[in-house]
Amino acid sequence: QQALRKPHTTKHLKLHHAVQCSEAQVQAGHTTSS
Known about the structure:
The protein is mainly alpha-helical and 34 residues long. It is 74% helix and 0% strand. The protein has 1 helix and no strands. It has one helix at residues 9-33. The longest helix has 25 residues, at 9-33.
């Protein structure tokens, strides 16, 4: 909750979103290969 009060919230959210996207692509790749 404190993280939401930080001034770099937008940057953090973008980074977190990018991580989720990359993880989703990795999971999708494993699902397709297997």
